[in-house]
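Subject: Long-chain-fatty-acid--CoA ligase

B.,
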Amino acid sequence: MTPGVDAPTWPVEFADRYRAAGYWRGETFGGVLRERATAHPDRIALVDPAPERRTWTYRELDQRVDRLAAGFAARGITRGDRVVVQLPNVGEFIEVVLALFRVGALPVFALPAHRDTEIAYFCSFAEAVAYVVPDRHAGYDHRDLASRVKRRTPSLKHVFVAGEPGEHTALREVPCEPRPLPGPAPHELAFLQLSGGTTGVPKLIPRTHDDYLYSLWGSNDICAVDADTRFLVTLPAAHNFPMSSPGWLGVLYAGGTSVLCPKPDPATAFPLIERERITMTGLVPPLALVWTDAAAHTAHDLSSLESVLVGGAKYSEQAARRLEPALGCRLMQVFGMAEGLVNYTRLDDDFETIVSTQGLPISPDDEIRVVDDHGNDVAEGEFGHLLTRGPYTIRGYWRAPEHNRDAFTEDGFYRTGDLVRRTPTGHLVVEGRAKDQINRGGEKVAPEEIENIILGHPSVHDVSVVAVPDAYLGERSLAYVIRREDAEPLTSVAVKRFVREHGVAAYKIPDLVEFVDAFPRTGVGKISKKHLRTTAADQQS
Ligand code: J2J
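Prediction pasted inline below.
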């Protein structure tokens, strides 16, 4: 463990190799923005179309980021400090993140859907000094959430609000005269990203400038992102996929334009595609289905679209076949993870490969192993557990030594928890998942987190949360509950309300609740989730 990094990192011989191979270029985000602003100051970097259209040239973005970074520094936020950032797809999000990068402070990327439980955990676990929120978003007042979290979190010194601040500090008051800042070194951490999670609390993923920047330019090469790219940020901008595959950060690296989409539905996105002449975007499979259907009878001109990336969850082959003809652009499947490894189908892959595989890794130095339950490599083409190691895949979660012992092999391979098969061309096909996680159309839910909440209900004796197949989302969540014999009667609605009132993101509330008398057990007496999943799937079909 490198002091100050708080997580295992690449052994020196690997780091040297990745530098020598030219993957790690010794750049930082702050430096990249400055260089682009110098090279082409008047190009548009960013468009925030709502409520009034705002644009930022590269020069303006660089200058505003400088002033905001100076303001953060003046308030005592320094290199290595953690700042929880929870903003929707607005220009302020991009400014805040880039300003923190420039200071060397680490954004912790919360999603707009997160509530008290998650935010309080991120703030306390990361010992965050600041938390950045919108005033209201999607009918929810984030200032109240911030007040509650601040009372519970001693480390939290600042709450900055984009919009009307209430009892907190207005973000617009923060910028001040720029001053030279020491800034981070390329091998240092840039931010902490959230893991999809399989455990009671999400793990934090430490990414460095060097490794993440490689995943960006590597993605740009594969996806043909350049200065002419006009990328629509359709998914929440804080998620790893729309941020880096190739995402708004990849587009920034290439000197292109990112347009922030306030909502992902076709009624919002299609007019923007037409007006802003969007060339590329990224979608999760359920959204891709909705877009494909809506494209058939839209009056909007989508002809500027050149490629659409679909990933985050398995995209069914039937759905994939329909996308290109409907949207009139290239489909690229992407199978990625915030821990690192990202695979893309290539623009010159044949149609069958594009619709039936989840692509090839970005890097020739992404090491891929497909192993059986005992860690032995399976035969060519057989399916097994995907392990990976490489120039932009982490070697350990942040401050999680015990979990790291299970999540990584001794020689540093990350156990993705995904079950894959490799085709003769090296393309990966995702066949399933061994980790205990629900993938709700790209939104990941850790059953254990929800089980722990439900177990707190006085009428609950035991609970097991599993995935059930769903035609639209791919999977939904089902909570099997055993009631306490002597307790008050309990309804499905009451269980859902209990989880909601606990304060978690709405997508984590069980879609279905069923009451049972007992759980199937494994030979050693543990609850057999496998058995429960099969029962659930049978009942739903
Ligand atoms: C099946 N499962 C997939 C796919 C991810 C790009 C794209 C996605 C993510 C992401 C990302 C899948 N088919 N095409 O970070 O940069 C599931 C796998 C994987 C997990 C990672 C990116 N694409 N998955 O989804 O960290 O189970 O990243 O291990 O949220 O999503 O989730 P996450």
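The chain has a mean pLDDT of 96.

T.
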